[in-house]
């Protein structure tokens, strides 16, 4: 038994024992790869004509598909088309490849609408278990209304092609049977047959009861004959079974007498397509409305009886939607769980699945939606359960069947269960259960299924049996006397013709208690006499010489009295035919089974004169029939004669039965005697117990008397205590009054305290603001002092250099020339005298000073000025001019508390600084949309307002979004300043912002050109990327300082790393000033969810039509068109929402033009809801409009509105599809009227909304962010690990938590660790972090070999070799990369660190990780942009290297094996190739140092050192020198510092 078969056994056992927590796994797994579909089928349960469109597009996370792997082996089938069109899925090919690798493919069925089949290579679909294509009609018109949006020819041709391309793949067509195709189903089958399709499946159209499309298309009872006629044709064509047929279509007998008029149905479908949808599939919520379980009706599930579940789906079906919601039902029911929030088993056997399974046996608690459901999937996998019960010897008649249980008969394969359902169905009429064998029951049977189940033929069959069994003497006597015969229970009279064959002279009539039966009998056999009568009431009925009653008695429980009633109706003979020795429960209608012992020999005064049984094996009745004849007079027939007529088997059976009964009675008597003896013994034992208890009772009575006495004494004490309590209560009342007075006094005190608190808060807030200002000032002062120190050091160095230069021989000659020119040739008499005196002293070497002649030499002047400057340089307290090794004294104390907090936060997404064109709280436009989306996606955003204020401030607008106001006393806004003159102010403000908020990785988004100089400086200083959001052609604005604005704009375009143009016009402008590969178009967008609200709102004024526009009205507004509309369409209102700065006087001339003024962004959807037609009337002659990509175009479409615009270039691609466009007034007005009347040809509402969704601001943000990332050099970080698990975790953790650089990959290479590191890295790899790669070497390749294996995988422009015993700090990659980008001669650079064997080491002061972060931030901030270049090698502990250099000089030399000297070796290669190396002072990485080598024994360490040293010296033919440290630092520095 394989996993699938074993799972089926478990499934059946779970249901039989009513387990809600399944031991079985799902038999059917279904998942929707996406909720998006490329067409809109009219009847689709998810997105049909009556269904609201999806709010968002979901794509299945491949990780969620992989989560299903534990259930794959046990599953019988897997469906990859649970919702949406699978071929729309963005990762469909990756998904199919995964199914083939995982083994899922051989169980997988993909269902598609066929439109996109041609876009994939055929081999994608190979190895599928089944490919199913929807094909509902061979008539183009009907196909394209049913599968709306699909093209008939495309689907047809794709089916033909895929069959040819994949001859060995099982391909099927699925046909949804409905009123539009029921008359040509055979044509569809013929098409399948011609193209060698493997199978055709005919299915129901099904959906919610309130879906008007489903009601329109469902098959009526009057249509069923058409369907079956078509199926007969199909069966004739299918004789060779080349193309198999699966008839899953079932019908419920629905009828509304609506004629099958296909044209009318077609037109009604068109109307529904254009009607507003009203059913929201995704709105169903568990526990609400008709998806709510009635827990008040909950009962304990009994496990004793065996039952059929109300629905099998929760026991075998697992449906996963693209958004990770999990369903148990393929119908429109609420989701039960979410796979993103729980593990797989926690969902399958979670609370909601268990609750639903419980409801399948506890019918009263079922949700209303379940109670109303009769869809065929309810009965899926029912047959295997029925077979399982039979295999386990369960009598199917004892199995409990749920209400509303009506599976199509063809769905049931077990004949016994099919018969049980058939009999059960007979008991139900109009939803009411009838009493079995009642008159109502039989009236219903004769009126419904009597003919369907062969009732007439069965009646004739039993009549023929009776004729054959009649004794000759009876036939002779009745015919001779011409006795009248009555058939009691004649049904529809079919037996009377049969009886006439034997009784040719007798008059024959029929009676039945069913009105319906007699009605049909008179209609079918009018030659006979009929009467409605009841066998149980013979005293009121006519008697006959002979009565016949065939197969009636068994339908009564009290058979003896029924036989007596029959005999009472006969004056001579009663002839009775009954089933004999029938199996128990064989026929549900039979209330009694007859054996020999059940046959009365005498019934009152009627004697049994004949008994005869005959076995039959017929479809009408497979068993024995027993003929009994009772006579009124005994005549000459004796009992012995009767016995002789009984067959031998009957006599033996009778004797055996009597003997068995006697033996059974004797056994029972013995058992009862034994039981009586045992009971007597128990009675004696109980008498003894009673005596003992009587004694106990007496003893307890004595105890009770004693306790009564104690109670009396206690009552006395209680009375005394009550008196004392009364006195205490009076005192308490006095105290309460005193307390009340005290509380009043306290309330007054509280009020006074509250007043003081309010005053204190005001003072506290003021103090807090002052403290913040003071903190920022202190931090700036600290930064300034540090910078002054650095500048002083530079000045001292410059002065020394100048002094050396000024006193050199070259400068002495230069000085002589200057003095000749200044004193000898152009000076006065005294000057010439002074010159000759100086020259004589120099020749005689008696005067070596420069003297006053220094004024004639500019170099001497500079030297003297530098001396003065150095003498005035900053000297800190204590008189020290510099700290050893650049250590910062108590630097952490200089940080603001806010900055300290920020430093301890994770920093894994770069910051965004937006230098804006408008204030954040002005109109909500493109800049604000991008700001909010950057923030929503995890980036800190600092939105710098364009207008300036009197005091700097940063306000948190929302999570991650901060609005920044800069103070400026000279200018009100950025628009007025040229930026160049105010560069220092800009730099100061931006430096303060960056320092306070610990910004180290960022992009600067420049919205307005006048920010360019500040942005450019910050870019250069901090290495931030500079991006221009180019949204307007600034030459088109009026009232600006155009000259410098234009110059600044050109400079901005030239200096930016990326230009994001909002239109093609702006792209073309930008390409004149910068490389086109640095420009991308990201057009404007819309916030669909906000403006979509307007689609569902009702208009306020329903009387008048509204032509609407919202936005500013300025010089570029085509006011003439508005006035033309107002004049030519006076019956309409023209509503303008927005600030009107020009043309007001012209617009106000018309009473039907309503100027509502500017409204908040949040309110716009309310006004948009009232617009019948939306306008974009811009003057296209202005460059501003040529550059404009109107936001409102997308916003209007978000509400599904009709749009008319002028001929704006950016809207041209959408002309006559989503917008009408004209610059001509009359044509413009004509378009407005078409839209107003609904006679336009523009896209419908839902198509417009879908278009808007494709242009949502989120998609625009994604394109913007992707463009930014592409412009940042890719950096590959390679971390080599070998054991040291804790250290590895610390290093990798710091990278992932503190690296906000936008474009890096992390490659972790393990050199065959043995301490658990490999397992940790496997767990890391399993997380599937997009930019993390793990390489597990099968042997230790050494430092060089291990790193080289990572370098080979690296894709980056730069490679960073990072030791595993390091901890990185924020901004480290950005600053390393910055120096490499600024100097193309640098082959590699190192950061500064606390521990290393060369000049990269600086003196530090920290003792934990928090202090390390703060130290690193301050040190790198005060040394921003600085480099240390006096270095001849770089240890490869955190080294950035150009990848191209490695391609030129080679990778690390792996001859050094485990390690040491490979860094010296690589430095030699780089320097010999003519490149430079440097240490950058603005990047810091903490280094533990020698994490791996410290594990080696001293002797082993020395051996490796000496071996590799020798190798180095021989390779480079030079003696190796010990590396040196920078001034003030040695090997012992920082020995006591660390984290």
Descriptive report:
- The protein has 1539 residues and is α/β, with parallel strands linked by helices.
- The chain has a ten-stranded mixed sheet. Strands 35, 36, 37, 38, 39, 40, 41, 42 and 43 form a nine-stranded mixed sheet that branches.
- α36 links the parallel β30 (1132-1137) and β31 (1153-1157).
- α25 packs antiparallel against α26 (829-844) and α35 packs across α40.
- The relative contact order is 0.04.
- Mean pLDDT is 84; it is low at 635-648, 760-772, 868-885, 887-893 and 1036-1041.
What's the total number of strands?
43
Radius of gyration: 50 Å
Q: Could you state the oligomeric state of the chains shown?
A: single chain
Can you give the mean pLDDT? 84
What is the spatial order of strands in the main beta sheet?
A: 7-6-5-4-3-2-1-8-9-10
Structure annotation, total helices: 50
Low-confidence stretches: 635-648, 760-772, 868-885, 887-893, 1036-1041
Name the helicity range. Answer: 40-55%
The end-to-end distance, rounded to whole angstroms, is 60 Å
Shape: elongated
Query: Strand content of the residues, in percent?
Result: 5-15%
Task: Classify the secondary structure makeup into a structural class.
Answer: alpha/beta
Biggest sheet, in brief?
A: 10 strands, mixed
